[in-house]
Amino acid sequence: MLPTDLLMYRYSGEEIVPKRLAIGGQTLAIANSLIALFQAAKGGTRGELKRQLQALEGENTDYRMKRGLAHLLTSESFSHFETISPLDPLALRQRVFALSAQKAGGSSATQSTLQHLAECLSQELGHDVLPTQIHAGLYADLPDNQILTRFEAPTAEALLHRYNLSQVQGVFYRASHITLNAHRNDPGEYKLLFRYLKLFRLMTYIEGDADHGFTLTIDGPTSLFKPNTHYGLKLAMLLPALLHVTKWNLTATLQQRDLYSGKVRSGRFTLNSDCGLVTHYPPGKTYDSMVEESFVDRWLKTKTDWQLEREVDLIPIPGSVMIPDFRLAHPDGRTFLLEIVGYWRPEYLQKKFSQVRQSGRDDLILAISERLNLEKAGVKVDHLPAKVVWFKDQLMPKTVLALLEQA
Question: Is residue 257 within 8 Å of 265, Cβ to Cβ?
Fold first, then answer.
């Protein structure tokens, strides 16, 4: 994602159009030069890298593009910066300042203090610590002093695709709501999209079915009582997941505050599956929580005829879709759906249990965390069509299997 000051748009009437880069000779050359600069900067500080990037920008008018590409390369997706110090910098400063207070000032006293502390730390840590390492480590926790220890270089094309995607993602920061039409697609594509909606906890109203397609109305960050940057980021993160869907189109209603008059200006943004954007999200399966992931790991080590399947059926609910986390299938033909209800807010719990009641499914198993305050959320498990199992920190396969034996 790019900072808002690096996002570039043009207005065509009320239509807002992000300015994308054409992937060609000049842009590829710029991307390659930035990637090469980062590769050469490994082992150096962030501050040194920033100075080299500023020099590369020069006084050219394309500085925003270069700055945007550099921002993407600096992100955790590609770069890893570390604080390199023989001791925690805060503790190291305390040790140095305490020793320095015992001596008069001066360059010779400084060298003496560093040498004395180096000898002490060498004995404490069991390896040689040099005075130069202490000097470098004193303020190693400042961002500009962190070291670029690893750089996963993308191709120039991949970097430019990421830049164009970020330009479009930035539009959603200003959205009041989005209407998304997902046309008739492979059911697996719907499941992946809905799982990301669930993962990012976006407020969504869903109509339709897998046979004819779905219409999703998603609240944007400017629809909230107070515009929420964190929610806007989550909404923008949905776009790479949407690109895995074959046929779709969306319309976003935007609220933009004019910098000069201060008045709110309405705009519109449209996008469809022919947009040419490229996703960096893998098409694989996502887990909503560590509880789910650890449950799968444990199940794979369990000796049982029951098969645990990740891709499951969509259960249509008025205004929504319920996607159970797993399907449990037995060779004799019996199947059950499993939904894990972990650590969630009261509003989510109320919605989840309402969905379970509306589904009317008697082949559904709810695994509910004992840490949830269901009473405070106003939720009761009485008279549910689903079967219920309880767990504490981890959901154990033997608990679910015991219930299946009784079914």
Answer: yes
The CA distance from 40 to 148, in Å, is 10
Question: Between residues 47 and 201, which one has the greater pLDDT?
Answer: 47
Element (H, E) at 110: helix 107-125
Decide if 146 contacts 82 (C-beta within 8 A). Answer: yes
Please indicate whether residue 116 or residue 71 has the higher confidence score (pLDDT): 71
Which residues are 254's β-sheet partners?
Answer: 175, 267
Residue 140 pLDDT grade (very low, low, confident, very high; cuts 50, 70, 90): very high
Q: Which residue has the tokens 């082992």?
A: 43
Alpha-carbon gap, residue 92 to 194, rounded angstroms: 49
- 182-195 in b/e burial notation, b at 16+ Cβ within 10 A? bbebeeebbbbbbb
Cα 221 to Cα 177: distance, rounded to the nearest angstrom: 8
Looking at mean pLDDT, say which of 8-17, 225-234, 326-335 comes out highest.
326-335
**More confidently predicted of 44 and 19:** 44
